[in-house]
Amino acid sequence: MSGAPDPGAWSGRPVVVTGGAGFLGTAVVRQLSEAGAEVRVIRSAEHDLREAAACREAVDGAEVVFHLAARVGGIGYNRRNPAPLAYDNLEMGSNLFEQSRLAGVGKLVCACSVCAYPHHTPVPFSEDEIWNGYPEPSNAPYGLAKRMLLVLSDAYRRQYDFDSCAPVMANLYGPNDNYDLEDSHVIAAMIRKFVEAHDRGDEPVSLWGTGSASREFLYVEDAARALVLAAEHLDRSDPVNVGTGVETRIRDLAELIQELVGHRGEIVWDSSRPDGQPTRFLDVSRARDWLGFEAGTPLRAGLGSTIESFRNQTSHVA
User: Fold this and answer.
1) pLDDT, tens digit, 9 for 90 and up, residues 39-49
2) Helix, strand, or coil here: 207?
3) What is the dihedral of CA 152, 41, 229, 290, to 10 degrees?
4) Distances, alpha carbon 1 to alpha carbons 11, 108, 140, 141, 306, in Å
5) Residue ranges of E strands in 201-251
6) With contact defined as beta carbons under 8 Å apart, do 124 and 282 qualify?
7) With contact defined as beta carbons under 8 Å apart, do 121 and 135 qualify?
8) DSSP 8-state symbol, 124
9) What is the pTM of this model?
10) Catalytic residue flag (residue 142)
11) Long-range contacts made by residues 159-164, C-beta under 8 angstroms, separation at least 24?
12) How far apart are CA 183 and CA 250, in angstroms?
């Protein structure tokens, strides 16, 4: 494994993870716990992080805070919920910075998103390009709220010498993802569609868009490891891309998932649905140089584990 967390850095340390019961948060909590940290999971049902007092209660006593809680979804969800995506994520991020500073937190690590990049960005995406335009419109309210984490990190470092960072995460996938067809991201939605179509007798599968767009996909355990490494090593507020650096066309992704599932039906592309950003993959050299991080899970292997996890669920998502 390239770039493993240092157990000596975490043994007995009080750590808070917002969104710690979620998809990415579960993996981060597990890795921190295995390294010996005393982890407290913050759930939205118990702490409304849009409220300053709830934020302060959440972070009190922590040496390190990982802010992973977010309102997030796929293209369909983004198109239906632009205002909550902007408001909720901005409020949570702003409150986490201010209340962590006031509580004396030693390090705040926030998960930024590749959606923060401009709609038309030269590929592979370099961190220097993140400020050079407006995000892809369907993602923009979410993407700009996430971009503000970088602004907050820089501002709080300069004003208060508060140590924080906001690594920019590629599209994530893996076991225990959200498989709701209305709100999930592309891999989770495809896996559910192909598995259920296969189980019904290799029925046709309808997918959004033309399949011509490309993305970069990062396995959730690799993403969690990168965030822990950021807490250990990233002592600056500059953006750092976290991903594989590998571009995958959506059409090729669909055919790979179809193969791994064993589905033999037809794939139907619904071009009336949006593709989203045309091309998206990252220059990951900064993460390698600054964090010692390289992704360790090939796409085929990660998809295999994710498909197996979905099939092993006692019941598929309703």
Assistant:
1) 999 999 999 99
2) strand
3) -10
4) 21, 25, 35, 36, 20
5) 205-208, 214-215, 217-219, 241-242, 248-249
6) yes
7) no
8) S
9) 0.93
10) yes
11) 160/101, 162/97, 162/100, 162/101, 162/108, 163/106, 163/107, 163/108, 163/235, 164/97, 164/100, 164/107, 164/108, 164/109, 164/110, 164/237
12) 18
Tell me the pLDDT band of 318, cut-offs 50, 70 and 90: very low
Q: How far apart are CA 149 and CA 101, in angstroms?
A: 14
Give Cα separations from 199 to 191, 208, 302 (angstroms): 12, 21, 21
Number of other CB atoms surrounding residue 293 within 10 Å: 28
Which pLDDT score is estimated for 218? 98
How many CB atoms lie under 10 A from the CB of residue 134?
11
What is the distance of C-alpha 244 from the center of its chain? Answer: 13
Neighbour tally for 104: CB within 10 Å = 12
DSSP at 118: B
Dihedral of CA 242/42/62/90: which sign?
positive
Using 50, 70 and 90 to split pLDDT, how confident is the model at 301?
very high
Catalytic residue among 117, 142, 156, 179: 142
SS3 257: helix
Contact 197, 204 (CB under 8 A): yes
Decide: 27 and 68 in contact? Cβ < 8 Å: no
Instruction: Kindly give the pairing relationship between strand 217-219 and strand 168-169.
Output: unpaired
pLDDT bucket at 315, cuts 50 / 70 / 90: low
Residue 313: pLDDT over 90: no
